[in-house]
Automatic annotation (TrEMBL):
The keyword Transferase does not apply. Its EC number is 1.1.1.270. The keyword Lipid metabolism applies. Pfam families: adh_short. InterPro entries: Ergosterol_Biosynth_ERG27, NAD(P)-bd_dom_sf, SDR_fam. This is 3beta-hydroxysteroid 3-dehydrogenase. GO terms for molecular function: 3-beta-hydroxysteroid 3-dehydrogenase (NADP+) activity. One of its GO terms (biological process) is ergosterol biosynthetic process. Keywords: Lipid biosynthesis, Lipid metabolism, NADP, Oxidoreductase, Steroid biosynthesis. Pathway: Steroid biosynthesis; zymosterol biosynthesis; zymosterol from lanosterol: step 5/6. It is an enzyme of class 1 (oxidoreductase). Transmembrane segments: none annotated. GO terms for cellular component: endoplasmic reticulum membrane; lipid droplet; mitochondrial outer membrane. It comes from Schizosaccharomyces cryophilus (strain OY26 / ATCC MYA-4695 / CBS 11777 / NBRC 106824 / NRRL Y48691) (Fission yeast).
Length: 338
């Protein structure tokens, strides 16, 4: 039975998550012709309709692949859903080999247009790699009364992987892949407001927190392997939901940056998923210490590059770890988990 492999991808009905599923499907082939289910990809989505549609689109892309595609419903902004998903995964799968914690969201409300135009004219690549002109919604909370972006991007996944570990679905050969971002700037996280309930940049704050937690966790020792990876910049639903048809111009601008030499404008979710596939195939323990990113040459040849992480102090790691561990215990108690 050990030749069977299982990959879980959260938020896989669109964008990067769908791209990761497609790349795994493209790469892995059944090892035994008459044993079609040596590789199982488990998608997680927020609704049955989205999950079934994603499975159908993946099968259409690779009709010849004998790989099992299944799904589990998961809404990270609802802790009951996260706990239910952990139990369902435990009941259905003996282990997970790859866990892509990809789902994520932002709550874009607007753009400071004058600032955006000025920054783009001054330095287009910088302006379109590290944007400072987005207006995010402030103070949005989930039904669990947590910061919505914090819970969707960080805590929901933290709870899920910690529970899966307790339930013995993860092991020393499991590779967990966290989804970071280039915008994880040091100043975006306020340690007195870790859920970013009062800050202007809940998305950036969540991604900086994710980086800090990752390095804190690997330093303290984990019973599984864990990597932090980002997709560069690709135009997905995250952009489309807010920009509508203007997303076409964003895509053109991203291509333009690539032609100007930016390695990070991956543009398509397929190229953006490259480093995620690379982690599954090539990564070693020492790669845990690096934040990897999907990148591209000017001509669209994919590659993987290390990404700089702004200084993380030992005290910052300690604060983040303690905060998450306490919140995890609090939620286990609230959900009556023994
Ligand atoms: N696109 C980029 O350039 C970029 C850059 C850096 C990092 N990222 C990261 O890449 C990841 C994927 O984003 P994407 O660009 O592929 O965007 P996307 O197309 O919007 O995909 C996001 C996925 O996450 C799911 N999701 C959102 N909130 C969720 C929640 N509360 N519970 C469960 N699932 C949830 C979405 O489900 P629904 O369809 O139901 O909303 C969707 O499946 C995110 O973590 C994002 O921060 C993206």
């Amino acid at each position: 039975m050990s030749f069977r492999k299982y990959a879980l991808i959260t938020g896989s009905n669109s964008g990067l998550g769908f791209g990761i599923a497609a790349r795994l499907l493209e790469f892995y082939k059944p090892r035994i012709e008459d044993e079609p289910e040596t590789f199982t990809i488990v998608l997680t989505c927020r609704s049955r309709a989205k999950a079934e549609d994603a499975c159908k689109r993946l099968k259409e892309l690779f009709p010849e692949r004998k790989i099992r595609l299944e799904y589990v419903l998961l809404d990270l902004s609802d802790m009951e859903s996260v706990e239910a998903a952990a139990l369902e995964i435990k009941s259905r799968y003996p282990k997970l080999d790859y866990v892509y914690l990809n789902a994520g969201t932002w709550d874009l409300q607007g753009i400071h247009w004058i600032q955006a135009i000025f920054a783009t004219l001054m330095n287009p690549v910088k302006a379109l790699t590290y944007p400072t002109y987005y207006k995010e919604a402030m103070g949005r909370t989930s039904k669990d009364s947590m910061g919505y972006i914090f819970q969707s991007n960080v805590f929901g996944h933290y709870y899920l992987k910690t529970r899966l570990n307790e339930l013995r679905v993860l092991g020393s050969s499991t590779k967990i892949v966290l989804t970071g971002s280039l915008v994880a700037k040091k100043e975006s996280l306020n340690f007195d407001d870790i859920q970013c309930l009062h800050g202007e940049r809940p998305y950036q704050s969540s991604k900086r927190l994710l980086d800090i937690l990752h390095f804190a966790e690997i330093e303290s020792g984990l019973p599984y392997q864990q990597y932090v990876v980002h997709p560069g910049l690709c135009t997905t639903n995250m952009y489309e939901t807010f920009l509508g048809f203007i997303v076409v111009f964003a895509k053109l601008a991203f291509w333009f940056c690539r032609l100007l030499g930016s390695p990070w404008h991956t543009v398509s979710p397929y190229i953006a998923a490259f480093s995620y596939l690379w982690i599954a195939i090539h990564s070693h323990k020492e790669d845990e210490n690096i934040k990897w990113g999907s990148a591209t040459t000017m001509f669209g040849k994919e590659k993987i590059l290390p990404t700089s992480v702004e200084l993380v102090l030992p005290s910052d790691k300690e604060k983040c770890m303690t905060y998450m561990q306490n919140l995890y215990r609090e939620w286990k108690h609230k959900l009556n988990v023994r």
